[in-house]
Specification:
mainly alpha; 0% strand
């Protein structure tokens, strides 16, 4: 996949569009490029968290929180990730 150099805001927009269309690898490539161009933005890291494997997801969210510790989006992403790590509730049989 060839991703040409673009403005960071365009990269983020395209990454979100790819994510919405289920194109995880494209979203990841675009978000990684945006992260390199926007080191002070948590948004690329949150996109990366959305496409990451469960064991990598928390590191992306932690990076977003390092960049912006008061980010509501990053805090919501942390809760979302923790919910997915929790084991499913077991049914109680009578």
């Amino acid at each position: 996949m060839s991703i040409e150099l673009q403005e960071p805001s365009i990269l983020l927009k395209k990454a979100l569009e790819a994510l919405e269309h289920g194109e995880k690898e494209k979203a990841k490539a675009l978000a990684l490029q945006a992260a390199g161009l926007m080191p002070a933005s948590e948004i690329p890291w949150l996109i990366l968290a959305a496409v990451a494997e469960p064991e990598e997801r928390q590191a992306c969210i932690d990076r977003a929180l390092e960049i912006n510790p008061v980010s509501r989006r990053a805090k919501a992403a942390r809760e979302w990730a923790l919910e997915r790590l929790a084991p499913p509730p077991t049914a109680i049989m009578p």
